[in-house]
């Protein structure tokens, strides 16, 4: 069985067909432009036209750890493209009988036209993709501390929509990110989501500002990846300080269990909560993103503010995943 | 986020579109007539015509507690209307990560065209409905000791079909219930199903007879609601006594664990079992309903009797739920 | 409720419509020819034509014990025929509330057009089939130590395809098995799969060779069934000895827990492992089958050998199940 050779996902749609997406490093800039443009197009299609695109295609939606939101998003994306879905959960799978991930993938490849995989181990997506027959695509829906590339795409897509003029199709990332300031706040150490997003943004002319407790600072490797690109990188001592210049704010949760003791947690938690009062100090156009689910890091009193972009972000996820499925099928 | 303002579900189909159904109190009599008439119409449609009604619509079927029967009934209803279904179980949902029900609902509203919710807490359906975007309907599939309005609709629909002349469309409730006697038997204290049904029947010219052990009598609040309507209410000392005049018998289970001790249970259990022998004393047209699943409160030796309506009742549930989905979509 | 009267599944397709399949004993030879021919035809249909066959039909896929592979195979088969699927797992079913299997089946029969049942108890499929309304078919997807007839059909189908000339439709079993040698190896005592296959092959002019540790020998009853047919039966002392003449090799797993002690297991395990080295001694056309999942009884180093038929076998399962669904619907 050949190891997985990741395809370069370029601006040429032909390069996508049958390709697996395991890592954000597979995208070229033109490839990202293509997928975001496709998402915008699919958003405008009426229901019948969308369903005609992949009528009868079957998705095997394989989740070795629960993630309702990501699973539902992929299911809805496939159904809206006219396909259907077979759901496989780890708790009911043959993995319990000692089967290898490769055999499971290969078996599902006998039934399905595309596989979506969520797995707790880094590298699992590439292993499974390597076991599938050539031309049968797999999309990585998160592999442990590894990658979660479809989340990164939907985050970038949301940034582009929020930073583009209203009422027109979203501009490509290079155009709409130019000269903008994006603040990433919260647990930057453990957040797979912010790591992928920061690496993706590194290639653009954007100012990144990190705000995190010292215990939860952005890993050096991610910071280095940003420095290797054209983005600028800064750290701010507090959310309040960073917020003034922010064109977009990406919030993640600061979890109590990440701190050495309760006192250390209590000392900082209040300074990482976004609420209506705090947002009075931000720009009137500052978009607030969050990968969801949230607990209390964004107050519900901010939900009705037009800058609250997190539920729009979730809806963008539907179109981003439809675009990815559409391109690989 | 606005609180849920329950729509009045009247005889005007336009009032239903996009509306959520949380409680039987939302129905007007004309509204009930409309949904039962729609159920009769959908029953007669051929498979292709039914599927054309809502092709491509997506149902999020959210069950925070298991209920195979209700879940399958809604799934089948949506599939037969041409739609598709995303199933969400509590065990795999983000509720485990501390997300509020409102956020979960709002998230699912980003993917789905309609939400069905089963939840262990009374009032959960209204909370979730209030969090959804305007025009995105939710159907309450049971919220704890609260309501289970779609079960009440299918029970009423079954009564109407059983009490109408055979071979013709079911008459509206007012016409077919007039002058009839409906006996409710079993655990009337805890049965959400019999509470909703009794309240719904209160508005009609029907005689209600309650048969229950003293420990499991109908709550005063439900009895008062019946008395406030045009139905009459009586209690019978035994099932055998009540059965003679019954035009319909609605059976629920008497559970051992509801009694103070085993002796109290054993003393009464036999008098609440419906079997072929007992039913010899009932009218030849007396319909026997049960919300199912049953354990031993209806003997299998009665299943082949034409008066055994409980499996017809389940099939009616399919059409009642198709009608409700059809009206709100 | 009438007991289940198994239909004879003959070469006349009309005999299949609405019939339940509980046991391989229901097939006539012409019936097997019909289902394999149908599988070959469905394999050649394009996606749209296949979906037009049973558009809108609903399958209730009921698994009282987990079996991802069989469940997914049936789901994919139904979806590719244009139908849709409602999945019911034991863990969420009303069986927990004390409902009988018969009531559960009859309830599902109110929603579904066909039922697939996996159950841990032998005879469960016939009991459930007997409870369904006449004309509503059930397919047995494995009932404990009882039968697993759809696996037997796909195994036979795979043998026929592997033993027929390449590039042409598979010959009927009688034609392609004539004069061939099929070796069954591994745990022949507990394997429901090999029991059904051996009984099915008994009717043909084929040489069967059994290879198993003494503790795991083929039961006398199955051996007797083979002897009652036209197949010949032999036992070989080792896989290496049997392999030389094999036209097909059907491998099953030898499980450690079947042996009286670890030493007894270690003494034999090596001699039942198929790998690239061992297969050098087999015919260049010897097909290797396995019901999957495998653990280590077939080495991954053999996977790329053209004789490795086990993933083709899984794909054949999709078409065999499509054929069975197509015939009963």
Automatic annotation (TrEMBL), chains A, B, C:
One Pfam entry name: OTCace_N
Known catalytic reactions: carbamoyl phosphate + L-aspartate = N-carbamoyl-L-aspartate + phosphate + H(+)
Aspartate/ornithine carbamoyltransferase carbamoyl-P binding domain sequence ranges: 21-159
Gene source species: Aureococcus anophagefferens
Protein purpose: Catalyzes the condensation of carbamoyl phosphate and aspartate to form carbamoyl aspartate and inorganic phosphate, the committed step in the de novo pyrimidine nucleotide biosynthesis pathway.
Protein's UniProt name: aspartate carbamoyltransferase
Residues in Aspartate/ornithine carbamoyltransferase Asp/Orn-binding domain copies: 178-327
Alphabetical list of InterPro entries matching this protein: Asp/Orn_carbamoyltranf_P-bd, Asp/Orn_carbamoylTrfase, Asp/Orn_carbamoylTrfase_sf, Asp_carbamoyltransf, Asp_carbamoyltransf_Asp/Orn-bd
Family listed: Belongs to the aspartate/ornithine carbamoyltransferase superfamily. ATCase family.
Pathway entry: Pyrimidine metabolism; UMP biosynthesis via de novo pathway; (S)-dihydroorotate from bicarbonate: step 2/3
Keyword Ribosomal protein listed: no
Key words, A-Z: Pyrimidine biosynthesis, Transferase
Entry EC no(s): 2.1.3.2
Lineage: Eukaryota, Sar, Stramenopiles, Ochrophyta, Pelagophyceae
């Amino acid at each position: 069985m050949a190891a997985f050779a990741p395809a370069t996902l370029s601006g040429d749609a032909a390069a996508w067909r049958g390709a697996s997406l395991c890592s954000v490093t597979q995208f070229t800039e033109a490839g990202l432009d293509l997928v975001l443009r496709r998402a915008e197009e699919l958003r405008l299609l009426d229901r019948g036209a969308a369903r005609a695109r992949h009528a009868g295609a079957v998705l095997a939606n394989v989740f070795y750890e629960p993630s309702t939101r990501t699973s539902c998003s992929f299911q809805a994306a496939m159904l809206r493209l006219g396909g259907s879905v077979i759901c496989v959960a780890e708790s009911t799978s043959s993995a319990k009988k000692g089967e290898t991930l490769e055999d499971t993938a290969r078996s599902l490849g006998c039934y399905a036209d595309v596989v979506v995989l969520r797995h707790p181990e880094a590298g699992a997506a590439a292993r499974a993709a390597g076991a599938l027959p050539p031309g049968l695509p797999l999309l990585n829906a998160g592999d442990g501390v590894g990658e979660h590339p479809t989340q990164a795409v939907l985050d970038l897509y949301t940034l582009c929509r929020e930073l583009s003029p209203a009422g027109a199709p979203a501009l490509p990332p290079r155009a709409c990110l130019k000269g903008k300031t994006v603040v990433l706040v919260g647990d930057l150490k453990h957040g797979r989501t912010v790591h992928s997003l920061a690496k993706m943004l590194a290639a653009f002319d954007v100012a990144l500002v990190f705000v995190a407790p010292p215990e939860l600072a952005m890993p050096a490797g991610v910071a280095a990846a940003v420095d290797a690109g054209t983005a600028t990188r800064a750290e701010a001592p507090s959310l309040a300080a960073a917020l003034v210049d922010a064109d977009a704010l990406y919030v993640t949760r600061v979890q109590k269990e990440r701190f050495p003791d309760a006192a250390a947690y209590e000392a900082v938690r209040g300074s990482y909560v976004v609420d209506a009062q705090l947002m009075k100090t931000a720009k009137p156009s500052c978009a607030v993103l969050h990968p969801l689910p949230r607990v209390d890091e964004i107050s519900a009193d901010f939900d009705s503010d037009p800058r609250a972009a997190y539920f729009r972000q979730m809806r963008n996820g539907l179109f981003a995943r439809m675009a990815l499925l559409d391109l690989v099928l």
